[in-house]
Specification:
Length: 365
């Protein structure tokens, strides 16, 4: 047996195959370490790059139209588009963002102090016709019961105060990421055709049969979700925030952010607007309450008007995919993931469905 082993070792050394295997293993290990190290370095910039690409793809038709009307001046068109996006973001979006941070800090302070209270209904609610007495009794009972419940669970809620403060603190980082993404999108606008050509060339190595179709599908999905879901949700939340601020509704920033999330996941703003409208009618005079109610109702119906214009026949991506993208994107990348997550997951879903459909057609054919 010893002679056989020595013979195998001699043969192993003679033909050099063992050395080649060891060298190949070392090279693969070094390559894997290099790829992982590169990923660790690039990882903080992945959300910025993803949102920059989404903005560039979603707004490219507007950029192309502007460039044509400027006499085919792509750089000037890119500069104007970047400045317009920055103006929208640094204006009302920053205003609502500061309100959100202020509201989160207030909630954190109440949780830390353990003095979370549900306000009792005003006596004027009793005088409302038909529903006044029942609404007052229901509201009063809920106020007493919820207040008692909050007092019991307040010690267990205090750890949430630190988490809420962390979320509020990350808003500053999220703002910087948004700014960087907008600037990056400005650079991507003129390079759009070259980047699409490079992407098509790279994909021919993976899906050579339908590369063009997959790229077109990805671009259409990004525009549909970015404009028809994210864009309309942002418009509704901004309009809602303006109305809530003008009505002096407490924690208007948090409520506007809740409207944003609910509209992205296709639930709508009603779960926020209905309690707010009830509160407004209890503390405001008739004319003010009526105007604010009409305003919020129009804001809530905005998506019914804008979605058919932006999305045509509608969105084929299931709502569950959008919901998972919102939750997963936010947990993975913070506030910017709230927007990037559903878009990227929708693109992945649509490409997977197209690929499965292609395979089924080939198998039946």
């Amino acid at each position: 047996m010893a002679d056989v082993g020595e013979a195998n070792v001699k043969t192993f050394r003679k033909d050099g195959s063992g050395v080649e295997v060891i060298q190949l293993a070392i090279r693969l290990t070094l390559l894997a370490l290099l790829i992982y190290w590169s990923y660790v370095i690039v990882r903080p910039f992945v959300p910025i790059l993803a949102w920059g690409i989404v903005l560039a793809v979603a707004l490219y038709p507007a950029y192309n139209w502007l460039s044509a009307h400027l006499g085919q001046r792509p750089r000037w068109a890119a500069v104007i588009m970047t400045l317009v996006i920055l103006a929208v973001f640094l204006g009302p979006a920053t205003w609502l963002g500061l309100g959100l941070v202020e509201g989160l800090q207030s909630v954190s302070a109440h949780l830390t102090a353990g003095d979370v209270e549900i306000p009792a209904p005003p006596e004027s609610v009793r005088d409302w016709p038909i529903v006044g007495a029942r609404l007052y009794d229901f509201w009063n009972e809920a106020s007493v019961n919820l207040a008692a419940t909050f007092r019991q669970i307040a010690p267990h809620l205090k750890p949430l105060a630190g988490l809420i403060l962390t979320v509020a603190g990350s808003a500053g980082t999220g703002t910087l990421k948004f700014l960087a993404s907008v600037v990056l999108a400005g650079f991507l606008f003129p390079a759009g055709p070259r980047l699409v050509a490079a992407t098509r060339l790279a994909l021919t190595k993976i899906v050579p049969q339908r590369t063009g179709d997959f790229i077109a599908l990805a671009g259409a999905t990004i525009r549909t979700v970015a404009q028809g879901v994210i864009g309309i949700a942002v418009v509704q939340s901004l309009l809602a925030g303006v109305g809530l601020k003008m009505a002096d509704v407490p924690n208007a920033g948090i409520l506007a952010f809740a409207v944003l999330v609910l509209c992205i996941v296709q639930i709508g703003a009603a779960p926020v607007f209905i309690p707010v409208i009830i509160w407004i009618w209890t503390v405001k005079d008739f004319s003010t309450a009526l105007l604010i109610t009409i305003y919020l109702a129009l804001v809530g119906l905005t998506d019914n008007v804008l979605k058919p214009l932006v999305m045509g026949r509608g969105m084929s991506t299931p709502v569950l995919v959008i919901f998972i993208g919102v939750i997963g994107g936010t947990l993975a990348h913070g506030i910017i993931g709230l927007f990037v997550g559903p878009i990227l997951l929708a693109v992945a879903w649509e490409l997977m469905m197209a690929w499965i459909g292609e395979k089924e057609a080939d198998s039946t054919g």
